[in-house]
Amino acid sequence: MRLTQLLALAAVILGVTAAPQVIPSGLTLQRRADPDALIPLRFSLAQSNLDKLETFVLDVADPRSPNYGKHWSPAQVRETFRPSQGAIDTVNGWLTDHAGIHADKIKLSPNGDILHLDVTIAEAESLLQAEYNVYSDEDGNVRVGCHDGYILPEHVSKHVDLVWPTVHFGGPRSFSRRSTSIISSSRFGRESGAPRLPIDNIAAFAESGCDESVTLDCLRALYNFDFTPVSGDMNTVGVAEFGASVYKPSDLDLFFNSFRSDQVGHTPTLISVEGGDPTESGDVDEATLDIELMMGLLGSGQNLSLYQIGKTVAVTPDPMDELLAALDGSYCSLSPVGSEGITDCGNKPRTNVISISYHLHPDINDPAISPVVQRQCTEIGKLALTGITFIASSGDGGVAYSQFEECLQPDGSLVAFGNGSFVSQLPASCPYITAVGATSVVPGASTDQAEESTTIFPSGGGFSNNFPRPAWQNYAVQNYLDNFAPSYASSVFNRSGRAYPDVSANGWPIVIAQNGGFIQSGGTSASAPIFASLIAAVNDARLATGKSPVGFINPALYSGAFADAFNDVKVGSNPACGTQGFPAAPGWDPVSGLGTPNFEKLKNAFLALP
């Protein structure tokens, strides 16, 4: 019998199996792993009270709740969701009593949510009844995993969310007995569906209409945004940059000299995560776009923090884990092999708003992906409970995944620029994140007129395959499905999934300075930091009156109290996967969400809440 058949049979007799998976796209099976090589094996324990997380979050985020705005302390969150002692003891006991692992080799993470042990491949295979292999990517970097699945006893599996690395492949590794090094790689990427067009005469462009070039003044006019900070140093806002996304101070000054003179000489405050360094060489597109827009809109009276996430060094699938670990200590383990492991564990300052302009995973039902993204979304929800607003770009691929417009095939694979079922993207489709789509000024129109969804690239939107539709968006989404949604087959998209984007903001053609010159740029990667800047300004107004930051904003945005806070976008669509995608429509739609913001009305609606 094949190993997969044996595993399935053993699962019936002994416990629960992690089902065999296809080898992830971009990886090639190279060989069986060296049985004497060491790997850091981690058991992510099932947390307590996760079934109550949504209830807890809504208690502080629903405008109708008497506890609106009464956010939890980090300590309260840790204690509420900490895995039970029974779960820890059960997994520990199995490892020591039945698997023969010496107790000294097992370490519990600071948050009490991960058991970590350094074992040989042979020990891991015996422990998990698995077959470990080495896989390589196109760049020659290698990973270790067991795509044919693994087994946990039933009494253990109910206390374990994930085992790393197994079918959930870790970071690519240079693999040997003596030393281990990790090289940054994953499916994550910045949104880059919009072109980058050079500008020869910035003075002429700055004087053109906002349908031809979008400057800071255009954004202020579009969204009724006139902001002067009044809360002093109480307010905080951050932007996250992953991998080798960096910026040049000279580009910031070039931009500010033309459009925001009070910011000349200023740079964001660095919060380095896992050694992230924005002065290293790298790609200046995303970080430059985010920072210039946020610092330009907010001005010198509001500091911007930069979460610079270094090249991932942990056995994790993407840098989102490093960011979450730095904020709340999740994903952290002790005494890993060599220099591996997450070192920034709950030791970085938290800002009230965090803007993210990257896609991290396709939102598909895949046992190798779903547990990862569900765990990440849970951690985002727990941080939202403490009062953090997470804002993310909805993507530049329309109803497909990423700017490469990857669509789902019947065999579970993704095909770029082809036909297939729609694929949402993460983190945008996590319900605890506010997802932002992209719009443009209609050609020949003024800033007083409603925008349209972008046409130069399809703005991302759709329905999650991993997260059900939350109650707070039922009415708005069902109205769209009943009255405006195309009659696609049921297999094309998940009508009961969390729908996104939630809102939208301009994404083309935005003027920025980059590499010593000016360009037209954009994408939903611009829309997210624009909207994040407005929410930061809302927080400033609330803090000045003695109120809390807004925290998780989605239940409020979809409520009747905010019905007038958005400019409805009724024109456009987001084609991909051989279809026209979804059309924009009156009210919420999966292209522009609730629409673009009117800052004064948005601010006043939030100021009216406790």
UniProtKB/TrEMBL annotation:
Enumerate the CDD domains for this protein.
Peptidases_S53 (cd04056), Pro-peptidase_S53 (cd11377)
Identify the SMART domains for this entry: Pro-kuma_activ
Q: GO MF annotations for this entry? A: metal ion binding; serine-type endopeptidase activity; tripeptidyl-peptidase activity
- Tell me which UniProt keywords the record has, alphabetically: Calcium, Hydrolase, Metal-binding, Protease, Serine protease, Signal, Zymogen
Family annotation (InterPro entries): Peptidase_S8/S53_dom_sf (IPR036852), S53_propep (IPR015366), Sedolisin_dom (IPR030400), Tripeptidyl-peptidase_I (IPR050819)
Question: Where does the record place the Peptidase S53 domain?
Answer: 213-609
Q: Which Pfam families match?
A: Pro-kuma_activ (PF09286)
Q: Which residues cross the membrane?
A: none
Cofactor(s) listed in the protein's UniProt record = Ca(2+)
Q: Name the Gene Ontology biological process terms.
A: proteolysis
Q: Which organism is it from?
A: Mycena venus
Q: What does the record give as the active site?
A: 286, 290, 525
The keyword Cytoplasm is assigned to this record: no
**Gene Ontology cellular component list:** extracellular region
The subcellular localization recorded is: Secreted, Extracellular space
- Where is it chiefly localized? secreted
Instruction: Report the protein name in the record.
Output: Subtilisin-like protein
Q: What does the record note about the cofactor?
A: Binds 1 Ca(2+) ion per subunit.
- Give the top-rank taxon of the lineage listed in the UniProt record for this protein: Eukaryota
Span of the signal peptide: 1-18
Residues holding Ca(2+): 568-569, 587, 589
